[in-house]
Amino acid sequence: MRGHIILAAALAVTGAGQAVADDLVRVKTDKTVNAAMDALQAAVEGAGATVFARVDHAAGAQKVEMELDDAQVLIFGNPKLGTPVMQADPLAGLFLPLKVLAYADGDGQVWLAYEDPQDMLDDLDVAADLPAIGKMQGALGKLTAKAAGE
To answer: Which of 7, 10, 101, 142 is the most buried (most CB within 10 A)?
Structure first.
């Protein structure tokens, strides 16, 4: 009986870890991190959104004499999409503007990753069917696919 309880607990923990990963969308690319981020930034700007920041985590690590595989985050947004979400719940400002991470995994494979806006905002008082959320999902999908070269 005790073995069944331990197995059930282990499965529950594993399932919880997978649920967190399920909130993330990863897009594979053959580009370098820098090239993928350049392409993403161009796609975002070409779509009329505002780029607020580009953070180079590996460069930050080098400044403190540490090593980190290539990883950059692009922070961007469009008030036409973000404002209705923040009107629904001002706490959405903790999650907006949107962010996409370009990183190289342990095998050197480069990925673009972002959190699905629906999942990101699901604990807030934002209606799941708010049109802006679907538009954010669509924009992130298109922008990352374009940046990845798909």
So the answer is: 101
